[in-house]
Each structure stands twice: as C-alpha cells, then as structure tokens.
Amino acid sequence: MNIFRAACVIAAFSAIGLLAAGCDLDNHGSRKHNPPDGYGALVVENNSSRDIRVYIDGKEAGKVSDYSNRPFDLLPGVHRIILDERHGDRSWRDDVDIIEARLTILDVSSGWDNDFDVRVFFD
Question: What is the pTM (predicted TM-score) of this model?
Fold first, then answer.
C-alpha cells in the first residue's frame, strides 16, 4: 500500500509541475507591453472560459481568447469599452481612462449572473 501511496504523491506533484510550467498562472505577461510614444494601452486579461469580443468606441477592435490577454494601443483619453462573450450572454460596458505611457488593465472573470466581473486598474 505504501508504494501505491508514493506513486499517487509523485503523480500529483508531476501534474502540478506540468500545469505550472505550461501556464502563465498569473496571466500578467501583457503587463510588459510598452505602448508607442504618445499612446497608452488597454489590456484585456480574459480569466474566463469563453472568448471575448472587444469593442472600442463602437468599433470591434479584436478578440481575446479564453485565459489569455491582449493589449490595444489607444490615444490617451476616455474610451467607451464593450466586452461581449462570443457564443454567450455575458457582457460588460463602461467608459475607461487611457493614460499616456501607462496600461489600463481590465481583469475579466465570469460573474454569477449574465455579466462579466471586471476589475479596472492601472500599471
């Protein structure tokens, strides 16, 4: 029985090691993004299991796949941002400040209702 228990412990630690090596667990690689001179950046960190369509000032700007992130370089100022779940009902919209030479980060997760939970902060 001790051999079986040891094998289970080794398998568990191996699985944890593979997950840690294969995933960006903090999902913050996009925080190394440097916007071009005169711009700031909106960074959408998608921590949900669904792809998200990103609209900026009424125009579709791109998609952010599940559990990934993507920066969008923008001129400084206030921009209307809409996040829309592809093939689903979740959404979020708000006005967001973009600051020159800084990152405005939207940390997105699935809410319990039909909206995304979004935490906004600056880096």
Answer: 0.74
In angstroms, the CA 30 to CA 16 distance is 24
Helices and strands: H and E segment counts in the chain: 1, 8
Domain limits of the chain?
A: 29-122
> Tens digits of per-residue pLDDT, 18-34?
333 333 334 455 678 99
Q: Which residues pair with 62 in a beta bridge?
A: 54
Q: Alpha carbon of 88 to those of 20, 70, 92, 113, 119: distances in Å?
A: 29, 20, 12, 12, 20
Contact 40, 104 (CB under 8 A): yes
Q: Which fold has domain 29-122?
A: Immunoglobulin-like (2.60.40)
